[in-house]
Amino acid sequence: xxxxxxxxxxxxxxxxxxxxxxxxxxxxxxxxxxxxxxxxxxxxxxxxxxxxxxxxxxxxxxxxxxxxxxxxxxxxxxxxxxxxxxxxxxxxxxxxxxxxxxxxxxxxxxxxxxxxxxxxxxxxxxxxxxxxxxxxxxxxxxxxxxxxxxxxxxx
Length: 155
What we know:
A ten-stranded antiparallel beta barrel has the order 1-2-3-4-5-6-7-8-9-10. The protein has a single domain, classed as Calycin beta-barrel core domain (Lipocalin, Beta Barrel), CATH 2.40.128. The longest helix is centred in the first third of the chain and has 17 residues, at 2-18. The N and C termini lie far apart (47 Å). It has one helix at residues 2-18; strands at 31-39, 42-53, 58-67, 72-82, 87-94, 99-108, 111-116, 123-130, 133-140, 143-152. The protein is mainly β. Residues 4-20 have low confidence and may be disordered.
């Protein structure tokens, strides 16, 4: 009996060790961030957070940006694992009425790229670590629309 239990425990541990964590490569995003940047709409500052929710089933980004000369922009991005192979995807909504579906990739450690799916000009959202700062860029149709840098807030 003890031997059977030991074998079952060993098998469970071996299976867990082989399982790829759902958010591998995206851990660097987690936390609360404050930053500033600029681009086509002007310069501004804001805050955003990436938090695991629903018992780790999704990562939710909540973001706002206040332009120096303009309106406040808010958005919500939900990352999720889709389909049997667990492909990473994201959905985006904002206060301007935009909705974007993204494919998510991690081309290297400390970098994530969101590329829009479907019709339209093509949107690309990128985050990467540069030392202790997180950098970001949003592109529309292959052209930079806005860039920013952010620092993690104390927890």
